[in-house]
Amino acid sequence: MTVTGGPKPKAAQVADALRDDIKKMKPGDKLPSQRELMDRFGFASQTIQNGLAALRAEGLIVSAGNLGNFVGDGSAPASDVRDDIKELRSQIQALTERVAALEERSAPGGA
């Protein structure tokens, strides 16, 4: 539950900022890479992915897998199981990397 007037969730902040950027772009324009967005916002990979997922759900952007995210043409998002699977794989990969980093830090002699 979000308290009215409280700070917005980080993923919503990402989505809001990118909505403003998209208004100045045209369909087919490429959005910054996930790494660039992480650097810009200072948020974790998963937070950026969640913000992008919200924009995909709204039909504002389309994902082209490893090629990146692009401004959509304003049409309703097509529900494609392959896109859903790609998104899940991406999230699993991000979680795997986070778990590996946590395990490395918690290992004896880890920093």
How does this model look, in words?
The protein is mainly alpha-helical. The chain has helices at residues 10-23, 34-41, 45-57, 81-106, and strands at residues 61-63, 69-71. The protein has a two-stranded antiparallel sheet. It is globular, with a radius of gyration of 16 Å. The termini are far apart. The mean pLDDT is 86.
Radius of gyration, Cα only, in angstroms? 16 Å
Oligomer: single chain
In terms of structural class, how would the helical and strand content be classed? mainly alpha
Number of helices: 4
Report the β-strand fraction as a percent range: 5-15%
Largest sheet: 2 strands, antiparallel
H/E element order:
HHHEEH
Instruction: Report the strand count.
Output: 2
Share in helix: 40-55%
Rounded mean pLDDT is 86
- What is the straight-line distance between the termini? 35 Å
Order of strands, widest sheet: 1-2
Characteristics:
globular; two-stranded antiparallel ribbon; 111 residues
Write the layout of secondary structure elements.
Blueprint: H1 10-23, H2 34-41, H3 45-57, E1 61-63, E2 69-71, H4 81-106
Antiparallel strand pairs: 1-2
Helix pairs in contact: 1-3, 3-4
